Amino acid sequence: MANSRALALVLLFCALASSCEVALSYFPPAAKEDFLGCLVKQIPPRLLFAKSSPAYPSVLGQTIRNSRWSSPDNVKPLYIITPTNTSHIQSAVVCGRRYKVRIRVRSGGHDYEGLSYRSLQPENFAVVDLNQMRAVWVDGKGRTAWVDSGAQLGELYYAISKYSRTLAFPAGVCPTIGVGGNLAGGGFGMLLRKYGIAAENVIDVKLVDANGKLHDKKSMGDDHFWAVRGGGGESFGIVVAWQVKLLPVPPTVTIFKIPKSVSEGAVDIITKWQVVAPQLPADLMIRVIAMGPKATFEALYLGTCKTLTPLMQSKFPELGMNPSHCNEMSWIESIPFVHLGHRDSLEDDLLNRNNSFKPFAEYKSDYVYEPFPKSVWEQIFGTWLVKPGAGIMIFDPYGATISATPESATPFPHRKGVLFNIQYVNYWFAPGAGAAPLSWSKEIYNYMEPYVSKNPRQAYANYRDIDLGRNEVVNDVSTYSSGKVWGQKYFKNNFERLAVTKGKVDPTDYFRNEQSIPPLIEKY
User: Fold this and answer.
1) How far apart are CA 456 and CA 469, in angstroms?
2) Average pLDDT for 152-166
3) Which end of the chain is less congested by CB atoms within 10 angstroms, N or C?
4) Phi, psi torsion values for 426, nearest 5 degrees
5) CB atoms within 10 A of CB 517
């Protein structure tokens, strides 16, 4: 009787909706039909996509950024739900709890391991895809903004710039990154030394909890609010929107990109860089992108070339920076210039949601507290970066604001003493071409072990790496002991507080994936 009623509801909503392919194309088993019937009571069928729907592959694939996770051997969601308002998300959670279908959440699709839309083990789950919830509201007078989790960083940056060219927000470098994932895991870019991470500049959220209830900062409590600002996406509920603090930047900023090959002294220069860059004034960020036998020194300075040039000549003369290297522009123009190397059209560069660059990819990360000996840099540039299958290494210097913030202020713990972060990036472009890149990534990661952080060897949560460990599920709950293996690498001593908070807000572990925070239930 219940199944017949669910099917009748589907057909009724189909008759009223502009699109009914999901309802007519898929007749699932009884338990799943009850889940679908529950959904269509509150969510228009045109926003629901079952596996048999003709549109399912394109909806699933539109924001998959790593083509490794598009292959048929990945466990895919039973349904994709594309909400257009908060009530749809609440309904998805309530129905999922009722019919034992777990929910995973995707905002921009940059999840390096794809755990926001795939499972490593057989599991009944649906994906709430926030692609249609991407509004941005800027309060210029109050210097704040509300931004939906489904917006991309480029859309947030662009909306801020439409109000003022002298306000900014310190999140990621790539404009296509989803706001939800970036802020949930910390979020940092070229303003990290001036203003720290994105998460510490979040002042309120709207969140749907594991029971489908809507919360803000006041109703969720201090621990819960602390956890969602850097504790990783999805574990503590679905953040629908974020209120962020907008921060001042000057009318003119300066960018330079100075490539140096090994024959031009790259090894000596980067050996000096690792000590100098973390000690520079907060207004100056110089990161390094290393590829092959070449290092590109890429900088953002909050000021003009006139003041940058003597600063560089005083603090870092080894680089040989001079006024001919300067590119002056507004902060908003620096976003595509850093990422793409040009600033032809802000609208095209920042608002483009049709990213066709979807390579097969592997990523890892490290944190460094002690300068590398010159011999290590010689090995990196002379051996590792010129091997078959070699990838790219990106070095982001810390110091100033990001390092001055206490480790416990947010779940993101990589603070005092960090010289720089390393991201290892490797791409290939055909399904069978991954052997050499994957081997290189594993081998260089092993080679670097003596020279990076220890006990634990730290990693950045937004550079998710399943090789660090995965949760084990016992009695339908992720175990704390298995989560601690990878969790302390991302969060250090903050992991226990995250797990205790999870135990309070989601004790049955409804929101979970292979690297979600496990619940730790305190005993009194």
Assistant:
1) 13
2) 97
3) C
4) -140, 135
5) 31
Measured in residues, the chain has a length of 524
Which letter does DSSP use for residue 300 in this model?
E
DSSP calls for 280-297:
S-TTEEEEEEEETTEEEE
Strand arrangement, sheet containing 79-81: 48-50, 79-81, 125-129, 102-106
Q: In which residue are the tokens 């909400």 written?
A: 83
Amino acid of residue 352: N
In one-letter notation, the amino acid at residue 200 is E
**pLDDT level of residue 9 (50, 70, 90 thresholds):** very low
Cα of 7 vs its chain's centroid, Å:
38
Q: Which two tokens stand for residue 107?
A: 């905002």
pLDDT of residue 33: 58
Q: Which of 343, 324, 295 is nearest to 157 (CA)?
A: 343
Dihedral sign (CA 77, 81, 86, 87): negative
- The pairing of strands 144-148 and 238-245 is antiparallel
Q: How far apart are CA 172 and CA 156, in angstroms?
A: 11
* Rounded Cα–Cα distance for residues 371 and 391 (Å): 22
Nearest to 460 by CA among 201, 198, 279: 198
CA dihedral sign of residues 122, 496, 212, 129: negative
